[in-house]
Amino acid sequence: MTDMAHPPAAPAKRRARLGLLRRLNLSTWIGLVIVVALVLAAIFAPWLTEYSPSKQNILHQLSPPGDGHLLGTDQYGRDIWARLLYGARYSLTIGIFAIVVAMIVGTFLGMIAGFLGGRTDIVLMQVMDVILAFPALILGLALVALIGATMGNIIIAIAFTATPAFARIARAGVMTQRDREYAQACRALGFSGPRILFRHIMPAILPEVMVMSSLWMATAVRTEASLAFIGLGLAPPTPTWGGMVREGYDNILSSFHLALAPSIAILLLVLAFNLIGDGLRDVVDPRLKDAS
Questions:
Q1: What are φ and ψ of residue 290, in 5° steps?
Q2: Looking at residue 98, which CATH number applies to its domain?
Q3: What are the distances in angstroms from CA 215 to CA 109, 230, 286?
Q4: Following DSSP, what letter does each residue of 20-51 receive, concatenated?
Q5: How many separate domains does the chain show?
Q6: Residue 73, strand partner residues
Q7: What is the pTM of this model?
Q8: Range(s) of the domain holding residue 148
Q9: Is residue 250 in some structural domain?
């Protein structure tokens, strides 16, 4: 029989999720809508355009918007709208996967450093400090130039530059939580170190890590676009937003729409991730919202 004094946990969890959704402000919802819209546009790109992103048509090169092409064509006669939709796949994939990798690796290293302390903490954090000493774009540029400009390598390079940020925030969270009463009670009960760290402490620091991940996704998108702009992105004719901006730069005076469309797309995606990150930060720590 079900104990009537203790209602099922599912309704309580459902109420907690609804409470979290209610605390999200309008700007966060705007950011979520933008990201979801871009993801859907990337997924359903073949149904949103009849043109191929790589098919050239010299007879229609540099066509203005509206002349049979929603956003016009580039110097090779390729449809800008099609390249924008298919380019979203690469920008989103690189940005999201790079930060997921950085979040997993950085959080793990930061948790180990914060929980064990001592020499392990010193060595790991000194390595992270050395990586942080280099600007993310410069370090990413050097890594991509060294290992090659493939999608996997670009993801690894961007993830490498973002890992120290997650390691530092995870370390700080673990050092705050490891001496609290619940952690001491777990030690008194004989729980192992890994169980205390990953089962009890990790859930307490995950909200801050998730906020960091949403903010760093904006940085990852900017870094990928910057690498593509300087020629270290995916090789043509693969459509990427940064590469489209670079190609449009050569014709900026006569056909400014070539660079304008992908620039606006990058701006919207970066803005959306920042809005989501700010909203999640306010939910995780309302004191920051009150202080601002």
A1: -65, -35
A2: 1.10.3720.10
A3: 20, 24, 17
A4: HHHHS-HHHHHHHHHHHHHHHHHHTHHHH-SS
A5: 1
A6: 79
A7: 0.83
A8: 25-49+72-291
A9: yes
